[in-house]
Known about the structure:
Chain A is α/β, with parallel strands linked by helices.
Amino acid sequence: MRVLKFLLQKEFRQIFRDPSIFRVLFIAPIAQLIILPLAANYQIKNINLSVVDHDHSQYSQVLIHKIVSSGYFRLKDYSGTFQQALQSIESEKTDLVLEIPNHFQRDLIRNNKADLFVAANAINGIKAGLGSAYMQQIIQNYNQTVRTKWIQFPRFNPQPIIDVEYSNWYNPNMNYPYFMVPGILVMLLTIIGSNFAALNIVKEKELGTIEQINVSPIKKTYFILGKLIPFWILALVVLTAGLLIAWLVYGIIPLGHYITIYIFSAIYLLAILGLGLLLSTYAQTQQQSFLVAFFLIMIFNLMSGLFTPIESMPHWAQVITWFNPVSYFIEVMRMVILKGSGLADIKNQIFAVIGFAVFFNGWAILNYRKRN
Amino acid sequence: MTQFLIFVKKEFLHIWRDRRTLFILIWMPIVQIILYGFALTNEVKNANIAVFDQSNDASSTTITNEINASRYFKVIKYLHSYDEIGTTFREGKIRLAVIFPPKFQGDLLHNNYAQMQLIADASDPNTANTLTHYATAIIHDYQQSLNQNKDLSYTITTNLRMLYNPELKSSYSFVPGVMALVLMLVCAMMTSIAIVREKELGTMEIILVSPLKPFRIIIAKTIPYLAVSIFNIACILLLSVYVLGVPINGSLVLLVLESILFTFTALAIGILISNAASTQQAAMFTSLLSLFLPTLLFSGFLFPLESMPLPLQIISNLVPAKWFYIIVKSIMIKGLGFAAVWKETLILVGMTLILLGISIRNFKIRLA
């Protein structure tokens, strides 16, 4: 036990002596947590719109006004012809073109029907899909207004109407950072957990100082614990800083208990640190270890449901996510923080992560050799 | 010149010997393209939902079946009380709950007016929005089918055209983005680490006392990574054309030339980082924070730039990947020529020259 105490002392000294590590450990995650949620925003607004109005009627004016005042669109230019509008799409100035044909108003009132043309730059499919959906909704609403103006509806509905009521639970203001911040916090903890401990061991390998530890009577379990514990503690400190920022900057207070978050994070960090250790037992150079960890973490993060929903993935990809510790943590963070889930609700995830922890650490200890 | 070639050979040997690193350098873009192309999509499909049907009549059953039959939803649970809604949401099992009040059909057919409720798990606002949109559309279709015979007057028909990407495949925007990301990563990050490693291990000393000009040393270091990244571009383009079905509509030569230009920008940044960093760990994390994340965030391929706060939009202009992304999109997908991208090209050239200038000026011949 005394040995472990000395090892821990050594590691902490090494960490705090290197200012660049300290910077990376604390300042970088905090900066990221403040900037990332602002940038990582899938919400589509401010779609740049170009309008080609051949009709110049009162009706077309009202429609354009309705679209612009919806808040989703920003009217960039009035083009004379559709060709001109296409050119502004080509040069990325606008995303969507609305063409109102000649005699739009006359057709609508006299012939009972009129056409509108909408063209979207669909290279970014999500933007085009949502943008045109918003557009159609506004046009539909406008259509309804026109109808009520011209048709006197009887007191009772002539046709059956289903009135759909919406409620948005857990995030009624549809605040996007509420969704992203817990996920980004997980991403940061994962990067710290998987990289730092691993790099630390490989650095000793590359610089040759590991020889000195190998010839000493330190048991390999102690050696590994000596590397794990400091980063486990540091990561929990970063988590605390992150939760503090989530509260101060974004006003996010978990609906569930902080204790639930810490219990799960503590187990999760063991798993992810174990993964780092495992990588370090195989890697020879820091470049190698960093790159392998980076590669794995990138795949873990992409396949975790952080940016894109897991249910939308094809079945084979969903199966991969079962073997991804990050996906469990992200799910748990969002459940506890946004929905107030308790330990009983997340017991499956806890068991899964315990499994990962045992597996990675066990393999790492088995694979660690004092001889090269 | 022979000296120089020998140096280049040395660097190639370095990379060649480290098979694990090489393996990842080559597989990273391939895996990314496949993941982005097949696994990752923002489109919502098969979302798990629950139904709380207090009426259990023909109408509510039909609507439930219609919803279940669409590719967006999968009904996984039938609820029997209001309290169950909250519990099911907390367990994280469902994203949407559909609630029919008692006497749904009776109200609908006799009073011509019935209410129902959709409760979405808005912790993910975007998905919640999309799901309620889809569900409402299905319910409206059902309502429409009830009054099929009656003609609606004063109808505006919207004709929709999706330009460049009619099937709305997400790979169309991901492929150019992954190209930018991979080139940045391979060129800038790997070069900076390779240079700093020599510093950390002390071998830089030996190189610096050799008669080779420092600038040549750096060039020799970058050439192997340049080769790897050209190989990567080739892989990405082949995969995207033959596996993902993303076409190259414009000139291939122009696309390759622009990619090489961007590679130079990345290399210049890599050299700059290696000047500043003294340990490999510092170089790695500086590259990660100043290259990888900005490229991911501000190139516009993952997150729409227009939705960001104005200061971030201004910062995005400083990120070379943003301009490269616009160039690749224009050439590859819109099929435009040089005339359309000369401005962006000029910006990249300018950035590269400035970065190279700074990094050559700051290159230290003496170690501390």
